[in-house]
Amino acid sequence: MVKKWYNFMTKLADLRPGDRVRLMDFGATDQGYRRKLLSLGMTCGVDALIVRIAPLGCPVQMEVRGTSLTLRCNEARHLEWKKV
Q1: Model confidence over 8-67: pLDDT tens digits?
Q2: Mind spelling out the 3-state secondary structure of the chain?
Q3: What is the pLDDT of residue 50?
Q4: Is residue 69 part of a domain?
Q5: Which pLDDT does position 46 carry in this prediction?
Q6: Those residues with Cβ within 8 angstroms of residue 20's Cβ, 6 or more apart along the chain or in another chain
Q7: How far apart are CA 63 and CA 52, in angstroms?
Q8: Which of 12, 46, 49, 80 is buried most deeply by CB count within 10 Å?
Q9: What's the half-sphere exposure (Cβ side, CA atoms, 13 Å) at 10?
Q10: Which domain holds residue 11?
Q11: What are the CA-CA distances from residue 63 to residues 5, 7, 19, 31, 44 (Å)?
């Protein structure tokens, strides 16, 4: 049986510090937020490292292309990731 890549998709809330992930899809994010992510270098296929998660789960700090970014969980909840 061949496993499909979308079976391994995970959401931002399921990630832990130290996880290496790849952005697979923007999901149902609104167009303005998608543009903001694209301007920060968050394109489909980019690898990221989860650095830190705030005690209450939001925001999440990640390193993308050598830059540290923080994402609010309520804005980024639709992003689909794959663990690398």
Answers
A1: 677 777 888 999 999 998 888 889 999 999 998 899 999 999 999 988 878 999 999 999
A2: CCCCHHHHEECHHHCCCCCEEEEEECCCCCHHHHHHHHHCCCCCCCEEEEEEECCCCCCEEEEECCEEEEECHHHHCCCEEEEC
A3: 93
A4: yes
A5: 93
A6: 47, 48, 49, 50, 83, 84
A7: 10
A8: 12
A9: 13
A10: 7-83
A11: 23, 25, 11, 23, 15
Question: Does the residue 71 lie in any domain?
Answer: yes
Please report where in the chains the tokens 């510090």 appear, as a residue.
17
| Distance in angstroms between the alpha carbons of the first and the last residue of the chain | 21
Which are the contacts of 33, defined by CB distance < 8 A and separation ≥ 6? Answer: 75, 76
Say whether pTM exceeds 0.85: no
Q: What does the pLDDT read at residue 3?
A: 47
What total of structural domains would you count in the chain? Answer: 1
Q: Which two tokens stand for residue 81?
A: 């990731």
